[in-house]
Amino acid sequence: MLPRVTIRDIAARAGVHYSSVSLALRNSPKLRPALREKIQAVARELGYAPDPVLNALNVYRQGRKPARFQSTIAWINNWPVKDEMRRIRAFADYFRGATERGRALGYKLEDFWMHSPGMTPAAASSILRARGVRGLLIGPQPFAHTALELDFSAFSCLAFGYSLQPARLHIVTNHQFQSLVLAVHELQTLGYRRIGLCLKEDWDEKVNNHYLGGLLFAQHRMPARRRVPPLLSKVSDRESFVAWFERHRPDAIIAIDRAVPAWIGSLGLRVPDDVGLADLNASPHDSRLAGVYQNDPLIGATAIEVLAGMIARNERGIPATPIRTLVEGVWLPGASVRAVR
Fold first, then answer.
1. Amino acid 4: pLDDT
2. pLDDT < 70 stretches in the chain
3. Can you spell out the DSSP letters for 204-234?
4. How far apart are the C-alpha atoms of 339 and 189, rounded to whole Å?
5. Of 190, 183, 195, nearest to 292 (Cα)?
6. CB of 110 within 8 A of CB of 95?
7. By the 8 A CB rule, do 196 and 251 touch?
């Protein structure tokens, strides 16, 4: 068996100190690009491969040490009103999960508002670089198909969801397709047969139409007589809902809009006695609404973990191939559904 190639072997061939080899193999920005590429080429030439046992030991040792401060990560807030995004429970939980996991990894998360007085994209990039920010966590956008004029080239960047367009960055989000399929399955298990989806078009577009895709997949496995056409409306309004409901008579509704219970009540119907209701953004702290809990703090924590890895590998700018990391939701029972006989 040939002896394993070590970093000292690479250092001897490249004519550098072994510590430089270690930095080059981690893609560290502390080395000049030309030197980093030279060392990496020598490593490939010698057939270097990391020792998995030593790597596991290093991970174990690092995990026992208190987190050392690495750098600041900027939470990019592109909402017109600064505090509006985090008034939405799910997005506040993203921030909380990211903050807590970032602290454990040695990163400080700071809100950076893109609409501060006098702020421009060029000024934002300059300020972030001056503050030593290495990573950008792009918060959810206020609307579908929102553009963000920011120079990403100096930063490791990750976005929540698909509302930032064009969707060229790595993304962490809920697995919305799975969430919709899960909701339909749980409602069918309770005995509901005519299950309808009520959603604003903009909300579905913000998740890359994955809610609609999940519904169509679930309906593909239903008898045709049970398929309720989805209500996808430009705006949330009672009139459209009432017309849709009276035409198709669903026995259960999947929705996000919190006005839906009042619209059902205006028809003289009761939840869950007359119609079941499942929320696609259910909360574990509210047992009144059954539905899918998207694991929002875990989405935030996962985003920080992915971004921390990118920072460690010195991956900056727009990636050649965007990667989507999907966090699955779980079903939460609640008082808005019942077993149907």
1. 79
2. 1-2, 51-69
3. HHHTTTHHHHHHHHHHHTS-GGGPPPPEEES
4. 8
5. 183
6. no
7. no
Q: Return the biggest CA–CA distance within the chain.
A: 82
Q: Which two tokens stand for residue 67?
A: 């987190």
The Cβ of residue 180 has, within 10 Å, a number of other Cβ atoms equal to 28
Cα distance between residue 318 and residue 150, in whole Å: 11
Q: 97, 137 in Cβ contact below 8 A?
A: no
Q: Whole-angstrom distance between the N-terminal and C-terminal Cα of the chain?
A: 69
- For Cα atoms 122, 127, 128, give the angle at the middle one, nearest 5 degrees: 100
**Are 196 and 231 in contact, with CB atoms under 8 Å apart?**
yes
Which DSSP state fits 79? -
Residue 58: the pLDDT is 56
Cβ neighbour number for residue 49 with a 10 Å cutoff = 9
Count other Cβ atoms within 10 Å, centred on residue 113.
Answer: 18
Q: Tell the CATH topology of 71-175+298-327.
A: Rossmann fold (3.40.50)
Choose which CATH entry (3.30.465.10, 1.10.260.40, 1.10.150.170, 3.40.50.1240) describes domain 7-64. 1.10.260.40
Show the tokens assigned to 175.
Answer: 């697995």
The torsion angles phi and psi of 284, rounded to 5 degrees, stand at -70, -10
Distance CA 276, CA 338 (A): 7
- Rounded CA gap, 214 and 314, in Å? 36
The answer, as to whether pTM is greater than 0.85, is no
Tokens of 288: 């009144």
